[in-house]
Design a protein that fits this description.
The chain is of the alpha/beta class. Helix content is 44%, strand content 14%. Helix 2 runs antiparallel to helix 7. The chain binds adenosine-5'-triphosphate and magnesium ion.
């Protein structure tokens, strides 16, 4: 039985994350998804709360049901600790046990490797558009972004009026 770990900020959860998760679920029995920078919300970089991001991932998982069957996915919000040398033990202390880490982020790879974990790189999917920064930019500029995220994520963002929030907080008082 193997359990994989995949971490992101998911601001928002998009089709790039979705494809990575689909691939991971082909290889392992269970997955732990870490919601990084869980304490952050209502900023331009991190507009959505941890709870809202949990909803995005959880509802998007429904779409993978036919691929993953009954495989269990745990979604764990993880606050930042602002100390890289302690970060892996912080993550481990809050998550179900996992054997293999999936990431393309150089710092994440480095820290888990130093801690002795098996780390696997993931493929990049349409990284020009499937990128949180690009999706938030489109939301702010009033461009279409809906085709870059799973359908259930569109619904969550509509329900919480996420685009309105982002467009409000991007304004300054000057
Ligand atoms: P931001 O622009 O806000 O940083 P992001 O798209 O990089 O958003 P993150 O939540 O930072 O999203 O990413 C989490 C993980 O998902 C990272 O390891 C990142 O490399 C990976 N990832 C992000 N987009 C893609 C993609 N299109 N294909 C494959 N992996 C991706
Ligand atoms: Mg990123």
């Amino acid at each position: 039985m193997t359990r994989g770990f995949f971490i992101g900020r998911f601001q928002p959860y998009h089709l790039g994350h979705h494809e990575v998760l689909r691939e991971i679920l082909r290889e392992v029995d269970e997955v732990v998804i870490g919601i990084g920078s869980a304490q952050e919300s209502h900023t331009v970089e991190n507009p959505f709360t941890a709870g809202e991001r949990v909803m995005m991932v959880d509802k998007a998982l429904e779409e993978l049901k036919k691929d993953i069957g009954e495989k269990k996915v745990y979604i764990i919000p993880l606050e930042d600790v602002y100390r890289n040398s302690l970060w892996v033990s912080h993550v481990v202390s809050l998550c179900p046990y996992f054997d293999v880490v999936y990431s393309n982020n150089p710092l994440v790879i480095r820290l888990f490797k130093e801690a002795g974990f098996r780390v696997k790189r993931t493929k990049m999917f349409n990284r020009m558009s499937y990128q949180g920064t690009e999706i938030r930019r489109r939301m702010i500029c009033g461009e279409s972004w809906e085709d870059l995220v799973p359908k259930p994520v569109v619904e969550v963002i509509k329900e919480i009026e996420g685009v309105k929030r982002l467009r409000e907080i991007v304004n300054s008082d000057v």
